[in-house]
């Protein structure tokens, strides 16, 4: 647990967003379908890239220990691969044109959908966000509590998870927080984004939350699981740099299984990628491992310094 004392006051408070919005309504089946189709098209392009580079390597007859080829296939084969990509781009534009009039229709709210979406964001979330894919999870803070006290505890989930996965039982941490006079607030975010991007946005969201809360926040605590602890550390660093007012209220941070020294599993994945890249015949397959999100790659870093 880390503690934080009182900081200087005087920062201007914002009312840009309402304090602690309740969980977002269910998502649209139409938007989900459009997002899944775009993911499928992205997969087609990815496979095409791997096949083309392997084709070029075989075509040049390179030795297994030679440098990897990173050039398009020559001649007619190159035209075929470019044609595949062109068709995929055209199909993508057609999907957007066909689905856009129905965006937001047929809304659903299923726990299974949230589990799958959170897992997908953990693995590919940075690319989903960059492409504007509707499956990308926007960051938000929310509470379902009607009795909003001056004490807040924010729960921050880990990789491939979402805010609804925190236990909601009489013996859970949020129940204990309520018993101590705290109002539970839950962060939902795209865990595939880099922890630096998520940390900066978390800091901004905390600033808006504290500024627009109906009571003056006297105690702010954060309970962070796994990657959520790294996001929280980056949020605190961003708040220090920007002199964010929410640090005045921060009293404690509880880390649950946070890999402050880096994840050995992610480091092993990096070593596998390096080994695959050593031969031109296996290098194209390193793209598969390299497709994991920025958030996952950040887990391999040492944050102890």
From the structure above, extract its key features.
disordered N terminus, alpha/beta, 9 helices, about 300 residues, about 10% strand
Q: Could you explain the architecture of this structure?
A:
It is a single chain. With 305 residues, the chain is an alpha/beta fold. 47% of the residues lie in helices and 10% in strands. The protein has a six-stranded mixed beta sheet, with helices on both faces. The longest helix is centred in the N-terminal third of the chain and has 32 residues, at 29-60. The two termini are 17 Å apart. The model is unreliable at 1-19 (pLDDT under 50).
List the helices and strands and how they pair.
Blueprint: E1 2-3, H1 29-60, H2 75-99, H3 111-131, E2 140-142, E3 151-156, H4 173-179, E4 182-188, H5 195-212, E5 219-225, H6 227-242, E6 250-256, H7 264-276, H8 286-290, H9 294-298
Parallel strand pairs: 3-4, 3-5, 5-6
Antiparallel strand pairs: 1-6, 2-4
